What we know:
- By secondary structure, this protein is mainly alpha-helical.
- It folds into two domains: 9-96 and 158-359, MFS general substrate transporter like domains (Growth Hormone, Chain: A), CATH 1.20.1250; 99-154.
- It is 77% helix and 0% strand.
- It has helices at 2-27, 30-61, 66-69, 71-85, 100-123, 128-150, 164-193, 199-205, 207-227, 230-247, 256-283, 290-325, 330-359.
Amino acid sequence: MLVAARVVQGVGAAMMNPATLSIIAVTFPPKERGTAIGIWAGVSALALAIGPLVGGVITQHINWNWIFFINVPVGVIAIVAAYLFIDESRDTSHEQKPDIPGLVASSLGLFALSYALIEANTYGWGSARILGAFAVAAVALVGFVVLEAKQRLPMLDLSLFRNRTFAGANATMLFVALAMFGVFFYVSLFMQQILGFSPTAAGAAFLPMTVLIILIAPQAGRLTDRLGARGLAGTGMVLLAISLFLFSRLTETSNFWSLLPAMLTGGFGMAITMTPTTAAAMSAVARDKAGVGSAVLNSMRQVGGSLGIAVMGAIVASQSSSWLRAGHPRKEAFLHGLHDSLLVASGIAVVGAVVAVSTVRKPRHHGHPSDADYQPAAPVE
């Protein structure tokens, strides 16, 4: 039931998240778009600050079921606000219809890949089940690319990736998610299982990172408007690599103050990476393709996050099992697995820095009117 409900939740998120970013892209002129996206990123980071803390309080003091119930009034308020405050706009360039073959191929490929990474340590990396899952993932994902290249109205317009900045920004976002999303999950486990933090304390421990994102993201957006995205994104990825390395030095005797340098470095790094990367990607597509561009960017983030958690989990499980078989205590085995996974994530962030610096360019606002003659998209009644 939990998995089925999460599927429904994922469908809702897939319909909502790209729309919010594309609304910003068609509402603000080029010189203000980075600032607007920075504010969007800062507000989005509120979820990272509020969610773990409120979830910890509810889980510890009420009941874990209420982490779901609390979202019902929030959702109702959001629906009402959307109808009251958001003007409608849409792509009117050609007919629209769902790409069912592409949807099936991509879903099957990503599911099989995630399943193989998550279950490999249970069944064995060389087992028929896991090798079969990897094979299904490879065939389905290659088939998806072939289908999208031939479809008249593909769900993923591959021609967008001919723009080097758009392709580089999406790759950078993928690396950010690959490197960082697992941190929130596994460092939270570390704090509770190794350091003995309560759920509430573990959620509160992330506040320095998330509050810094909230404060810095709008400023990073303003700097993107003035300086471009490449230097900021590259610097941010280097800071993320440093943050992950600092996390990998944690031990059984660590405390909140041991966590703080990694939290602060990671928060600053995420803020000056994700905002410029998002602004670069959205500025590289035409206004009438803002929804598609936003959807691709969000997909990269979600796919990277899912695979990042799965990869970190595979490393933690594999290394922990090896140390347990060698006779080491469970806590020590978990720490070795966590350290190795964080070092791998740090290496991924370094690769992301290289990609950002070598591909992302200052946007030319392709397909957008100049600031002088800019007019927001007319509402669709």
